[in-house]
Amino acid sequence: MINTNLTTDRPTFVTHLECSMTGERYEADRLHGLSRVGRPLLLRYDLDGVGAALGRDALAARPTDLWRWRELLPVRQTRNIVSLGEIETPLVPIPRSGGANVLVKDEGRLPTGSFKARGLVMAVAMAKELGVTRIAMPTNGNAGAALAAYASRVGIETIVFCPEDTPEVNVREIAMQGARVWRVNGLIDDCGAIVGKGAAEGRWFDFSTLKEPYRIEGKKTMGLELAAQFGWELPDAIFYPTGGGTGLIGMWKAFDELERLGWIGPARPRMYAVQASGCAPIVRAFEAGEEHAERWEDAHTVAAGIRVPRAVGDFLILRAVRESGGKALGVGDPAILKAVNDCARSDGLLLCPEGGATLAAYREALRTGEVDEDERVVLFNCATGLKYPMPPAPATLDRHAAIDFDAL
Ligand SMILES: *Cc1c(COP(=O)(O)O)cnc(C)c1O
User: Fold this and answer.
1) Contact 354, 383 (CB under 8 A)
2) Integer CA distances (angstroms), 343 to 46, 236, 241, 336, in order
3) How far apart, in whole angstroms, are the C-alpha atoms of residue 208 and residue 195?
4) CA of 367 to the centre of ligand 1 (A)
5) Is residue 371 helix, strand or coil?
6) Cα separation of 302 and 109, whole Å?
7) What backbone torsions phi and psi does residue 69 show, to the nearest 5 degrees?
C-alpha cells in the first residue's frame, strides 16, 4: 500500500493542452506528441476548480508523496497510476561544503535513484491511460532506467537508445528492468533521431524529453514540493543542472499554478540553469541574448545527465531563467569533481556529478557576488551518487601479520 489517496477516484482538472510557442489549443484525453510547429505542449488546468476542491490544509493532511498533488496532475483513473513509492525528497543542509543557507534537494532517493522517476511515473501512467503499448526513448541513462522500471510494471514494451559511453550501471539497470537497450555510436540527439524515425513509421510512441506532454507535469512536483517544504514561500535562488530542462520548466510552471491558486505570492526564486562548460548551449544562448540555442558540437563532460547538445524546450528554459532574474552558468569538470569530493568528505552527502555541478556553480556565483551567503539557496542533486564511479580505495590489511594500530 503506497498511499491512501489512491483508494478512491479523484477528479482531475485538466481542461486542454496548449502549444508553448503559439498558444494553439489541443484537446485533452488524446495522444499527443509535439505541437504542429514542433514545440512542447503544456497542460492547462481549471485552477478555480482545483482551488474549490483542495485547500492547503487538506493537502497538508495527506501523506507527503508525489500523489498528494493529484488534483494538479493529469491522471484521470486511479487504476492507471503506477507507483514504486515516489517520496517527497528531503532538503539536506551542506554547511561545510556549501554554506549555512544552502540546502540540497536530494532526488537520489526516488525510485530508480534519480528524479527521472518523477517525469516517467507520470508519462507512463498517461501512456497506459491513453492505450500506448510500445514506447521508445533516447537517454543518457537515468531516464531510460525510470522508463524501463515503470513501463515494465504496467506491461508496456520499451526500446531504449543511449550513447555508447553511457555509464555502464545505467545501461545494465535499463536492461535488468525489462527494456531492450541499444548502445549507439553517437550522442543523445543522434539517438533521438532514431526514435523519431521509428515513431514516424508508426513503430512506437516517442518518449523523448518534452516530446510528450506529461513528463513535465511529473517534474513539476519538484516546485510544488519546494513550496510546501518552505512553508509557502520560496527560496531566493535555485540551481538546477540543465540538460533538456524539463525540471526547470516544470518548476516554473508549478510556481505559476500555485500563485494562481493563491497558495504563494508573486515572489520567485532566481533560477540558475547550470551546464557543464563542455556542453553549454543554454549558457551560450543566454549570454548572446538569443531566444533559442544552437546545437553544441563535440559535447563532452563527466556529467552525462546534462550532456544534451540541443534541447527542444530551449526557449522555455531561457524564458524562465530571464523572467526570474537568474542566469545560465557553465562550470568545468574539475570544479564539478572537486565539489562532489568536498561535499562527500565534509558533509557526508554523496552527490552525482550533475549535483556537483550545481554546488560548483553556487560557489562560483558566491565568488562573483551573483548570490549572497545570507540568501536561501536550493541545489538539486538529481541522482544518487552511488550510480557513478568513485576514486579507488585500495588499502588492504593482513589480519595474520602484526598490525601497526598507530598507522590505521
Ligand atoms: C536528466 C538528468 C539531468 C537533467 O535534467 P533535465 O530536467 O532533463 O534538464 C541532470 N542530472 C541527472 C543526473 C539527470 O539524469
Assistant:
1) yes
2) 43, 22, 17, 11
3) 8
4) 25
5) coil
6) 21
7) -90, 20
Helix (H) / strand (E) element for 247: namely helix 246-260
Cross-strand bridge partners of residue 18: 25, 42
**Contact 116 CB / ligand 1 (< 6 Å):** yes
Ligand 1 in reach of 241 Cβ (< 6 A): yes
Q: List Cβ neighbours of 2 (8 Å cut-off, separation of 6 or more).
A: 65, 67, 83, 85
Ligand 1 atom index nearest CA of 247? 7
**pLDDT tens digits along 185-212:** 999 999 999 999 999 999 999 999 999 9
Query: Which has the closest alpha carbon to 355: 370, 341, 368, 340?
Result: 340
pLDDT in tens, 363-376: 999 999 999 999 99
C-alpha cell read off for 2: 503506497
Put simply, whether the predicted model's pTM sits higher than 0.85 gets the answer: yes
Q: Cα–chain-centroid distance for residue 361?
A: 18
Distance 244 CA to ligand 1 centre (A): 7
**Residue 94 half-sphere exposure, CB side, CA atoms within 13 Å?**
33
Shortest CA distance to 185 belongs to which of 165, 201, 204, 203? 165
**305 ligand 1 Cβ < 6 A:** yes
Q: Pick from 127, 119, 114, 175: which is nearest to 154 by CA?
A: 127
Q: What is the DSSP string of 307-370?
A: --S--TTHHHHHHHHHHHT-EEEEE-HHHHHHHHHHHHHHH-----HHHHHHHHHHHHHHHHTS
The cell numbers describing 306, all together, are 546534462
Determine how many CB atoms are found less than 10 A away from the CB of residue 109.
16
Distance 25 CA to ligand 1 centre (A): 29
- Would you give the distance in Å from CA 306 to the centre of its chain? 11
Residues of the chain with pLDDT > 90: what percent? 96
Quick one: which of 31, 74, 376 has its CA closest to 250?
74
Q: Which residues, in sequence order, are CB contacts of 122 under 8 Å at separation 6+?
A: 73, 74, 75, 214, 215, 217, 218
Kindly provide the residue ranges of all beta strands, DSSP E only, lying in 243-326, ordered along the sequence.
Answer: 270-276
The maximal CA–CA distance of the chain, rounded, in angstroms, is 77
